[in-house]
Amino acid sequence: MVTITDKAKERILQVIKDEQYDESYFVRVAVTSGGCSGLSYHLNFDNEEKKGDQFCEDKGIKICLDIKSYLYLAGTELDYSDGLTGKGFEFHNPNASRTCACGESFSV
């Protein structure tokens, strides 16, 4: 299961409002090959379920992961930072044995 912080929830709700997404949309989180540490995080909004999708919900936000990503992201917390050193979603992944300096890729 992926959990989200209150700041991430606020930002997700703002994006949904700004983009005028209806209640059929959910947050899709995925892991793909790439990045300087080998695996990269991806986050987008989607309203189409795909075969093998795994769903969880936290703080009223529906989160979708494909089965491969689910294995890498179990226990991960999604946060949002709007600080001076960077703005955007951040993944706090207990399964990552190494992350790159920018936090956008990891390895297990």
From TrEMBL:
InterPro entries: ATAP (IPR016092), ATAP_core_dom (IPR000361), Fe-S_cluster_asmbl/transfer (IPR050322), FeS_cluster_insertion_CS (IPR017870), HesB-like_dom_sf (IPR035903)
Entry GO terms, CC: cytoplasm
GO biological process, one term: iron-sulfur cluster assembly
Domain Core: 2-104
Gene3D superfamilies per UniProt: HesB-like domain
PROSITE patterns: HESB
PANTHER family assigned to the protein according to its UniProt record, in alphabetical order: IRON-SULFUR CLUSTER ASSEMBLY 1 HOMOLOG, MITOCHONDRIAL, IRON-SULFUR CLUSTER ASSEMBLY PROTEIN
Record protein name field: Iron-sulfur cluster assembly protein
Source organism of the structure: Sphingobacterium yanglingense
